[in-house]
Write a structure and sequence with these properties.
Protein name: RNA polymerase sigma-70 factor
CATH class of the domain at 179-304: Alpha Beta
Subunit structure: Interacts transiently with the RNA polymerase catalytic core formed by RpoA, RpoB, RpoC and RpoZ (2 alpha, 1 beta, 1 beta' and 1 omega subunit) to form the RNA polymerase holoenzyme that can initiate transcription.
Helix content: 55-70%
Oligomer: single chain
Number of strands: 6
CATH architecture of the domain at 179-304: Roll
Organism: Paenibacillus oceani
Distance between the termini: 53 Å
Shape: elongated
GO biological process, one term: DNA-templated transcription initiation
Structural class: alpha+beta
GO molecular function, one term: DNA binding
Radius of gyration: 21 Å
Strand content: 5-15%
């Protein structure tokens, strides 16, 4: 009995150490898989609760074991979310994350990579659940195919094929522009926001790419454009309508959102998180997340800062 209690105590200590060491990794993997910080947190908690109840004394690589558990839970969550997406009101966008964090934050090792931009996460939606897992484990986390095979339950050769297929589907990743100077991108976004605020049509049109698109995610809970807005003219009219209607309430704060310059806009009792995808010095996509289920994290931060 004494030995059993001692073993349990050792397991608790080990589980706490694993939690501290691997929570950032599992969260970042689950977030990239699901596009939801709330769901990613659930996956992490569920994974460690399960580990605490299991005999893992024979596990030789706890990191891969935890990744396997988290990945399997993500795959199940993706399947269950498919039906909900079909009835989602308007465009679905990933839940934004405030990455204006401290340099010493351990999450930064995994989260402040280029591959968490809204454009990148939307790109991953083109892949099947398994393709997404294999692609991320190889492309972002640099796992060997043998390790990936163990995590996803397929052969190493099959994983190589899945990865190649995923790469072909995705083509050129949208985060190439993210490797440019962040200050240049922030200056461009700041110029756009200034033009939007003052109604400077010529400047707004100059900053938008000819095929620019705006996606707005209200989730059916707040007013938002239920269809994509295509082209600079329609995007300008959208913002001009907002400027005239909400000029008095308009105020906003800069944030680094998903690793890139973003903007938190307050409209009466609603919060909009506005992010941008920039290519070749012009804004190619604008993403507005207004669904309160996805903006709650920013409300407290915006008030504090």
């Amino acid at each position: 009995m004494v030995i059993h209690e001692r073993e349990l105590a050792i397991l608790r200590i080990e589980t706490e150490q694993w939690y501290t060491s691997y929570k950032p990794l599992l969260f970042s993997l689950a977030y990239r898989m699901l596009g939801s910080a709330a769901d990613a947190e659930d996956i992490v908690q569920d994974t460690f609760l399960a580990v605490a109840r299991l005999d893992v004394s024979q596990v030789t690589n706890i990191k891969s074991y935890l990744c396997k558990m988290a990945t399997n839970r993500c795959l199940d969550r993706i399947k269950s979310a498919a039906a909900k997406r079909e009835t989602y009101v308007g465009p679905w966008l990933p839940e934004p994350i405030d990455t204006s964090s401290r340099p010493e934050d351990p999450y930064d090792m995994y989260m402040l990579k280029e591959s968490i931009s809204t454009a990148y996460l939307l790109m991953l939606e083109q892949l099947s659940a398994t393709e997404r897992a294999v692609f991320l484990l190889r492309e972002v986390y640099r796992y060997e195919y043998e390790e990936i095979a163990d995590i996803v339950g397929k052969s190493a050769a099959n994983c190589r094929q899945i990865f190649r297929r995923a790469k072909n589907k995705l083509g050129e990743t949208p985060d190439i522009e993210a490797r440019s100077d962040p200050s240049d991108r922030q200056e461009l976004v700041a110029s756009f926001v200034e033009a939007m605020s003052t109604g400077n049509v010529a400047r707004m049109l100059e900053l938008l790419a000819p095929d620019a698109v705006l996606l707005s995610d209200g989730g059916g809970k707040v007013r938002a454009a239920v269809n994509p807005l295509l082209g600079p003219d329609r995007i300008w009219r959208f913002f001009e309508g907002l400027r005239q209607k909400y000029a008095v309430e308009f105020r906003g704060e800069w944030r680094m959102v998903n690793g890139a310059p973003g903007f938190v806009q307050h409209r009466q009792h609603a919060v909009w998180i506005v992010t941008f995808h920039i290519r070749e010095g012009r804004i190619e996509s604008i993403y507005i997340v207004a669904n309160p289920d996805k903006t709650a994290r920013f409300i407290g931060n915006a008030i504090k800062q």
